[in-house]
Q: What sequence folds into this?
């Protein structure tokens, strides 16, 4: 059975109105990474960090999945093979677009985490600082987001999938953040066909065999339709 491994980044949610990180007016132009996306930043000023993710959560909850999210859900449902969807995004637009199995390697806005006992629970829309963990009562609840310097989630499982991938696609990601930016190299080593779908070539663009350039809503939809067309052999013509 053939396996497609798909990595998505902020670019797939851009047309849903969620800003990317590295655009000129993106999140990292408005906020310092060290302040809002590191464990040290959280230790220094938890309120600043919690408020930052409260704003992200509100924005994500008001956004709606776009045609690219929906196309990937259609692929998962109809592809005659296995589709593994890994996202760096912390919004839930893939799930709301219909995808059933999504690996959130950088965490999720709708989840809270206890750093003391690793318990996770649904985050309220507005988190406060110092909330108690419902399991161990430690007053240290934090957003369940993987910050710089922390280990992304599900790495062993993702690398196992990459080792078995027939097709690897990266959608809407700039290739600046590892380990995700290295997935293409891993998939190539495993013999996968590699394709990058992005507005422009990413910084690891030279690693991909194929490029499709344009807005995700158009290029992802087209790509999915081609895969579904290829996956289902044309019926013989009964005359
Ligand atoms: P970036 O903001 O770095 O890159 C977004 C990419 O999407 C860029 O290459 C854009 O050209 C592309 N893009 C923008 N609009 C698009 C559209 N409509 N259609 C297709 N592509 C589009 O975001 P990521 O690569 O996802 O991590 O960033 C990776 C990680 O860096 C994030 O998960 C986050 C951030 O720091 C953490 O916070 C841990």
A:
């Amino acid at each position: 059975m053939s396996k497609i491994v798909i990595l998505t980044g902020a670019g797939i949610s851009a047309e849903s109105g969620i800003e990317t990180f590295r655009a000129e007016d993106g999140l990292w132009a408005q906020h310092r990474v060290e302040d809002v996306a590191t464990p040290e930043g959280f230790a220094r000023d938890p309120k600043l960090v919690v408020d930052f993710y409260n704003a992200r959560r509100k924005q994500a909850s008001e956004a709606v999945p776009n045609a690219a999210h929906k196309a990937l859900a259609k692929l998962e449902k109809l592809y005659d093979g296995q589709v593994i969807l890994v996202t760096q995004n912390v919004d839930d637009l893939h799930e709301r677009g219909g995808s059933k199995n999504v690996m959130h390697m950088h965490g999720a806005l709708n989840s809270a985490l206890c750093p003391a006992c690793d318990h996770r629970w649904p985050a309220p829309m507005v988190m406060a600082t110092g909330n108690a963990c419902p399991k161990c009562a430690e007053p240290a609840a934090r957003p369940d987001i993987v910050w710089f310097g922390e280990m992304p989630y599900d790495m062993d499982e993702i690398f196992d999938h990459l080792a078995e991938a027939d097709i690897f696609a990266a959608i809407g990601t700039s290739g600046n953040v590892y380990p995700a930016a290295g997935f293409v190299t891993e998939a190539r080593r495993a013999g996968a066909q590699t394709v990058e779908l992005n507005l422009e070539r990413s910084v690891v663009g030279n690693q991909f065999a194929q490029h499709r350039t344009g807005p995700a809503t158009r290029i992802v939809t087209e790509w999915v339709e081609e895969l579904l067309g290829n996956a289902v052999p044309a019926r013989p013509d009964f005359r």
